[in-house]
């Protein structure tokens, strides 16, 4: 979503399957449980968790460890400094959002970016948006919000495929071939003209 919006000179269509969007809903809801894990087991320190993770013979044994690594990776993408310093968007000892860091994350939210990149989205010949109705990360809500934002900036509804299918977040790879087939048909029509 983001790459296509920022580089419409390279992309004329894209598909998103349960893509990260609507960060206030999909990410913010995870942070309190992560803060508890950091507080209870690592003295409220992300660095202490990362030291444990690096040293563990078998990492990811705790159900929240994967999510802690995931949020750290997102932080590296959304809120790191030029020198490589990574800033997580919440206080690890309390779970409180850090507004200036959280705003850096929100700047990359596809729902917000859609409002800022209407011209790029209107130039797309095909946009496929889908997610499972039972997505554990609430990315079905993100897909709905992104769809509304896309249509809201004036993209022709005939150029957009949107579906909330019966499913969760995982095991949705079967959707890829459906999207590719639809994209090929939409983009091939333009090529023949």
From TrEMBL:
Spell out the protein name for this chain.
Uncharacterized protein
Record the organism.
Kribbella sancticallisti
Upper classification of the organism: Bacteria, Bacillati, Actinomycetota, Actinomycetes, Propionibacteriales
